[in-house]
Amino acid sequence: MNPTTAQKPGVSIVATSVRYPRGIVDNETLGAEIGLQPKVIERLTGIQKRPHLAAGETLQDLAADACEEAILSSGLDPSNLDLMIFYTDVPTTMPENGRTLRRYYDVGAHLQHLLRQRGLEVGGQSFNIAGSCVSFLLALEVACGMVRTRARQGVLIVGATNNSFFLKDADVNTVMTFSDATAATVLAATEKPGFLGFWGRTDGRGFDAGYYEDYRTLWIDRKRVAEYAPRAMQLAWHGLLQSSGLSPGEIDLVIPHQAGLRIVEKGLELAGIPQEKVFLCLRDHGNSGATAIQAALGEAGRQGRLQDGAVIALLGFGTGWHCGAAVFRHHSRPLPAVGSFR
After folding, report:
1. Which CATH number fits the domain that encloses residue 134?
2. pLDDT tens readout for residues 78-89
3. What angle do helix axes 27-34 and 38-45 make, rounded to 10 degrees?
4. Looking at residue 124, what is its pLDDT?
5. Which domain range does residue 254 map to?
6. How many domains does the chain have?
7. Which residue from 184, 136, 182, 183 is spatially nearest to 156, judged by alpha carbons?
8. What are phi and psi of 163, to 5 degrees?
9. Per-residue pLDDT reduced to its tens digit, 36-92
10. What whole-number distance in Å separates Cα of residue 260 and Cα of residue 163?
11. CB-count exposure of residue 201 (10 Å: 0-12, 13-18, 19+)
């Protein structure tokens, strides 16, 4: 099937943005803390450095920066973004003034407030979702359906994670891997088709493969994740091909969850995806958990890897167990909205 006829026009991604904190923990620094040689850390994870929130930085401000950049580059009036979907997979424990800790009931509402203070009147509604490391894919599917049915004009999707806050007493494998990031994506109705298909599954037997001890320490069952994740990538890939009607040759670029390099490489091997079609940025940015796919999408855009007309597949997996995928045709220039929204 030709991707351009897979679905009627359409809903497209019209802007992406990613913002990483300025604190950088390289393998030399980390190795001195955990007693491993830098080359050993890189061999085990594929990561050379990982961004962590620095003193004085807040996750909300970083996310607001990503949102502002995405909104302004979309060319849309912020008032046309009448829905904001926020997600994270970390407890909403945020430093205030560098000392006091507060667990916000709704970080998404706080972020909308910050955007309004910047003169960006985004949306008549905001809600949060959670779905482990496939949260971005779930948000895309929800947003796409709402825009396609004209329930919403445009949607701002925001992901934000401060994993570094929960690593002090974590397992060494977790400490070596996780990083912080925020990302923003704008979706809108467009004259050309964008999204071509979605696929997802949940197997609840993995519900206890990741958790937070007393809201302060992240624990990941690395062995179980390493066994599940490659098979999940294979399952998501074949599920996406079946649901979209696309052949592997019609997909130009694959952006997987930026987990450990060995896990990703094993998943690509099982799925039969050639590595030259794959975008990875975990070497310089680590695994930011739930935001990793969305951040990698933004990074791919920054590096010029999202070519006009290219068909892009996103593959995700996470504790739960969750796995999912999405595929879309990328349009590098703003596209006019289709008809009336209401």
Report:
1. 3.40.47.10
2. 988 999 999 998
3. 100
4. 80
5. 1-342
6. 1
7. 184
8. -60, -30
9. 999 999 999 999 999 999 988 888 899 999 999 999 999 899 988 999 999 998 886
10. 15
11. middle
